[in-house]
Every structure is written in structure tokens, then in C-alpha cells.
Automatic annotation (TrEMBL):
Superkingdom assignment: Bacteria
Organism in which the protein naturally occurs: Actinopolymorpha pittospori
MF terms (GO), sorted A to Z: phosphorelay sensor kinase activity; protein dimerization activity
Keywords attached to this entry: Kinase, Transferase, Two-component regulatory system
Domain GAF residue range list: 32-176
Kinase found in the keyword field: yes
Organismal lineage: Bacteria, Bacillati, Actinomycetota, Actinomycetes, Propionibacteriales
SUPFAM superfamilies linked: ATPase domain of HSP90 chaperone/DNA topoisomerase II/histidine kinase (SSF55874), GAF domain-like (SSF55781)
GO cellular component, one term: membrane
UniProt entry tagged with the keyword Transferase: yes
Name of the protein in its database record: Signal transduction histidine kinase
Length: 382
């Protein structure tokens, strides 16, 4: 039973207050804006017995002469939610003056002027209220409520104009706070994206250069210092990732760049190998890859590194990546002994099959008598 159906003049203020509190709680609970607006219109219809409730908002996207019908409940007009309409009639007057328009015969008001598509449906209204939605001096839009001519709730609702305006004021404050939270979240997402796309890529590039240089250095003490620098860079990269995670949940793997995922696999391999594999990159790993290719590529790196770790006592592992316009190549070389391996056949078969599914190939060969080389490559079509 609707609150207005249990009409008690001595209890109505409390019912309206509870409705406003519930509305504020729901709006600030983190639900999306469309759902929040639907809740406001539904709650107002429930507490007031209105036959029609709508929220019209100012949206800079459409310019000064157009407003957006963000939510509609009643009279079969729900499908107009999200429709831009001219800023005219009672909508425009309320937003321009900041004053409510309330009339027992709203359709007879000179300022009524609804959008043409609404005229027929709204012609049944008697009591109507156009109330500004404003908070902290900012005009957000208008809340519209209407009752059918002769509605059994019309007389009671006419006495509760002030309560409807209080409800609208609470809705405006809650909607503004929700919008502020959304802007804050968007700002945090922007910062996280900049850290991920720019800073992480730069650290990745520096790390790649250091890995390459360390492999070219003959003096052990210089090579040791290069490895120490690489370890420090890895720590810094991890701290940046932690900061990104604190700003927002990391995106699904399918949405991460290949370079970001390669770093993850290299870091994970350090745990099983006891050292960081050397990484050599030719081409741009930040190029967008088809999702199935990127997924198989990352799995191939993981599988090839797992294969290297299954060899006996490897002391060096190199991951070489090359991306051209039409091909992606992964080469993993290790110097471990082949005598004791954990299910090598299954690992290598999986690598071979993943390449074949993408019209590529995978081969395993020995080099220099003591090194195992896994070559995995797939074509890039566009």
C-alpha cells in the first residue's frame, strides 16, 4: 500500500522525511545516475500518488537552448527518458527564474508549453508542479509532478506542495553530491590511465634498454651494477603499479597493453627462476593487438618461461620479442640442462597448438649444444 493510500494528516511529514532520507541514502550508495534518477521519480510517485513524474536536467552537451529528459515515470512516457527537448515552456521558466510553477490546472497555464510529443499524454493532468532542482546556487534542472484531473490524490497533494519542494531540494543536493563523486572517480581514473600509459611505458622502455646493455657488457662488476639498477627499476615499477591499483581497480587483462602484461610475466618468472629473465624488444609492444592474439601471446610467454624453469639449474634466460607490421615473434632461450624436466611435452604441445590456432607455428631447437630455444610466431593481419 502506497504511503498516500494510508493517508494520515498527523503522520505525513514523517512519511515525506523518511522518503527523502531513503532517497538520499540510495543516491549516495554508488548506483549509476540513470538508476538513481529512476529511483527519485519512482519514490516521488509512491509518496505523493502522482500519475506522472519527470526529471529534466541542464546538459552542457546540448547547449543553452536544449535540456535533457533524464527520467520519466507514468502516463506511458517512460520511453522518452534520455531525450533532448527544447528549453521552453514551464521547464524553461522554472530553470530561468529558480521559482516553482504550481497550478491546479497546469495544462491551462500560459507557460505550460510541453514538448509536442508530450502534449497528448499530459492533457489529462489537473494539478501540476514544476519545481527547480538547485543546490549550492547551481541550477541542475527541474522536477515535474502531475496528477490526473479528478485523481483521488489530487486534493491531498495540493496541500503538500511544501513537502514536494523539500523532497525536490533533497534530491537536488543528493544528485549534486553524486555528480561530484562521479567527477572525482573520473579524475582518479584519468590519473591512473596516465600513470599506466605513460610512466609505466617509459619504465618499461628504460628496463628494456638496461637488459640489452647488461647483456653486452663484458666486465662482471659493471654487469652486476646494471642488474642492481634493473632490480631497483623493477621495485619502482611495482610501486607505480601499486599506486595505480590504489587509484582504481586494474582493468581486465584483455584491456591492458601487451607491454604491461609482458612485465607481469617477467616479474612472475623471477619467483620461479630466482632471477629476472633478460628482455629484448624490437618494435612497439604498445600497438593494439586483436584480443585473441594478445591472450595467446601472453600465455605463450608464460608457457615458455615455465618450460625454461623446468630445466635443471638455468642461470640465464632471455625473452626476445619482435613485432613487425605483419608478424609477432617470441623467442625464449635458456641454458638449463634437459635431463630433468617437468612434463615438457605438455607445455610445448600447448605452445605449438596455440600458435597453430592463429595460423602461426612454434618450434623448439638447441643452440650451441647447451641452450634450448623456443620460437613462437603468429601473423598479424592488419
Amino acid at each position: 500500500m502506497s504511503p498516500i493510500e494510508a493517508f494520515d494528516p498527523n503522520n505525513r511529514h514523517r512519511q515525506w522525511l523518511l522518503a527523502a532520507l531513503e532517497m538520499s541514502r540510495v543516491l549516495l550508495s554508488g548506483i549509476d545516475r540513470d538508476e538513481a534518477l529512476r529511483f527519485v521519480t519512482g519514490k516521488l510517485r509512491e509518496i505523493s500518488g502522482a500519475d506522472y513524474v519527470a526529471i529534466v536536467s541542464i546538459d552542457p552537451t546540448y547547449g543553452e537552448d536544449v535540456v535533457n529528459v533524464e527520467a520519466v515515470d507514468g502516463l506511458g512516457l517512460e520511453h522518452f527518458a534520455g531525450t533532448p527537448v527544447p528549453r521552453q515552456g514551464a521547464y524553461g521558466a522554472v530553470m530561468d527564474t529558480g521559482r516553482s510553477i504550481i497550478s491546479p490546472n497546469i495544462t491551462l497555464e500560459e507557460s505550460f508549453g510541453p514538448p509536442p510529443a508530450f502534449v497528448e499524454a499530459l492533457s489529462v493532468l489537473g494539478l501540476g508542479m514544476y519545481i527547480p532542482l538547485s543546490a549550492t546556487g547551481t541550477m541542475l534542472g527541474a522536477l515535474v509532478a502531475g496528477w490526473r484531473r479528478g485523481s483521488r490524490y489530487e486534493t491531498a497533494a495540493a496541500r503538500e506542495t511544501e513537502l514536494v519542494e523539500i523532497f525536490a531540494g533533497a534530491a537536488a543536493v543528493a544528485l549534486q553530491q553524486q555528480q561530484s563523486q562521479l567527477l572525482l572517480t573520473q579524475d582518479r581514473d584519468r590519473i591512473a590511465a596516465e600513470l599506466r600509459d605513460d610512466v609505466i611505458d617509459q619504465l618499461f622502455s628504460i628496463g628494456t634498454d638496461l637488459h640489452t646493455i647488461s647483456g653486452m657488457v663484458a666486465r662482471p662488476e659493471v654487469r652486476q651494477r646494471a642488474h642492481e639498477a634493473i632490480d631497483k627499476l623493477d621495485d619502482t615499477t611495482q610501486k607505480v603499479r601499486d599506486a595505480i591499483f590504489a587509484l582504481r581497480q586494474d582493468p581486465p587483462a584483455a584491456q591492458q597493453t601487451a607491454s604491461f602484461q609482458v612485465l607481469d610475466e617477467i616479474d612472475a618468472a623471477r619467483t620461479t627462476l630466482g632471477f629476472t629473465p633478460r628482455l629484448v624488444v624490437h618494435g612497439r609492444l604498445d600497438r593494439a593487438l586483436p584480443s585473441q592474439v594478445q591472450r595467446a601471446f601472453v600465455q605463450a610467454i608464460r608457457g615458455a618461461l615455465t618450460n625454461a624453469a623446468s630445466h635443471t639449474s638455468p642461470t640465464t634466460v632471455e625473452v626476445a620479442l619482435e613485432m613487425t607490421d605483419d608478424q609477432l615473434t617470441l623467442t625464449v632461450t635458456d641454458n638449463g640442462q634437459l635431463a630433468r624436466r617437468a612434463k615438457p611435452g605438455a607445455l610445448l604441445t600447448e605452445l605449438h597448438e596455440s600458435a597453430q590456432r592463429l595460423d602461426g607455428s612454434c618450434t623448439v631447437r638447441t643452440s650451441g649444444g647447451s641452450e634450448t630455444v623456443v620460437d613462437w610466431h603468429v601473423p598479424l593481419n592488419g
